């Protein structure tokens, strides 16, 4: 399924109706979704709102609870996988939103984050409505190939990504936040990086290859995450 067009419509949804949803297409899509790292085990549950602890002023009828084993790039992997799921949900008229300020009532050491979802009339927007950094601010030079990553959502719209051209692709870096932001974003920004990489994968599905180099340029104020070809 081609989900590229959903990137340009995507909106984090916070208004839902309580309509019943057929979960079978969602389970089927997740069963075939591409991971960033196939060696990391992950799982998910679909929960109702009375099964989660919500710290937001709004709620959704359903939540995807995401779990993962802890390995290198496990948070990026979760972001990569489930942003594809989020875009798929939008493609079948279901709104969604990544929710850092919530948790599951049934404790599990592998729990990572929740995605709220449900039927909604407020799940898309025009590309002109995106508030994002300029391409020249997220890369060593402006490149329209990076627009899918530019439009990716991130915790408090922090947009922590930076791309350096390398061969047929890019080396990917995450900004080192200041002390105050670090307390809030240290867990969420790696997920954000995976979300941006998912957008780049979907826009370059036939050529995208992710790897982690041992020899890469160090950039002050940034942490190297990995590289990809397009």
Write structural notes for this entry:
- This protein has helices at residues 4-7, 24-31, 74-91, 147-150, 179-185, 188-203; strands spanning 42-48, 52-54, 62-68, 94-99, 102-104, 111-119, 161-166, 169-175, 209-211, 222-229.
- By secondary structure, it is an alpha+beta fold.
- It has two domains: 4-119, NADH Oxidase (3-Layer(aba) Sandwich); 131-229, putative nitroreductase (tm1586), domain 2 (NADH Oxidase).
- The protein has a four-stranded antiparallel sheet with strand order 1-3-6-4, with helices on one face.
- Helix 3 packs across helix 6.
- The two termini are 19 Å apart.
Please provide a brief summary of the model.
The chain has 230 residues and is of the alpha+beta class. It is 25% helix and 26% strand. The protein folds into two domains: 4-119, NADH Oxidase; 131-229, NADH Oxidase (3-Layer(aba) Sandwich), CATH 3.40.109.
Strand content: 25-35%
Care to count the β-strands?
10
What percentage of residues falls in helices of 4 or more residues?
Answer: 10-25%
User: Which runs of at least 5 residues are low in confidence (pLDDT < 50)?
Assistant: none
* CATH class designation of the largest domain: Alpha Beta
As laid out across the biggest beta sheet, the strand order is: 1-3-6-4
Tally of contiguous helical segments: 6
The description of the largest β-sheet is:
4 strands, antiparallel
Q: Which quaternary structure do these chains form?
A: single chain
Give the CA-based shape.
Answer: globular
CATH architecture assignment name of the largest domain:
3-Layer(aba) Sandwich
Helix/strand class: alpha+beta
Summarize the helix and strand pattern as letters.
HHEEEHEEEHEEHHEE
Task: Let me know the CATH homologous superfamily of the largest domain.
Answer: NADH Oxidase
């Amino acid at each position: 399924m081609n989900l590229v067009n959903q990137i340009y419509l995507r909106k984090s949804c916070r208004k839902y109706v309580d309509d019943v949803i057929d979960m079978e297409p969602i389970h089927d899509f997740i069963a075939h979704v591409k991971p960033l790292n196939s060696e990391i085990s992950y799982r998910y549950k679909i929960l109702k709102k009375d099964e989660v602890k919500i710290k937001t002023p709004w709620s959704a009828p359903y939540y995807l609870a995401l779990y993962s084993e802890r390995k290198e790039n496990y948070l990026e992997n979760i972001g990569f996988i489930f942003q594809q799921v989020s875009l798929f949900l939008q493609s079948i008229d279901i709104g969604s939103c990544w929710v850092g300020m919530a948790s599951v009532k049934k404790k599990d050491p592998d729990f990572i984050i929740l995605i709220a979802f449900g039927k909604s009339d407020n799940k898309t927007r025009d590309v002109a409505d995106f508030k994002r950094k300029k391409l020249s601010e997220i890369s060593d030079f402006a490149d329209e190939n990076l627009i899918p990553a530019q439009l990716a959502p991130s915790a408090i719209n922090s947009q922590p990504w930076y791309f350096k051209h390398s061969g047929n692709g890019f080396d990917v870096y995450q900004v080192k936040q200041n002390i105050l932001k670090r307390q809030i974003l240290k867990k969420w920004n790696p997920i954000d990086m995976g979300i941006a990489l998912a957008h780049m994968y979907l826009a370059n599905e036939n050529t995208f290859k992710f790897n982690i180099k041992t020899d890469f340029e160090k950039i002050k104020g940034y942490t190297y995450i990995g590289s990809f070809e397009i």
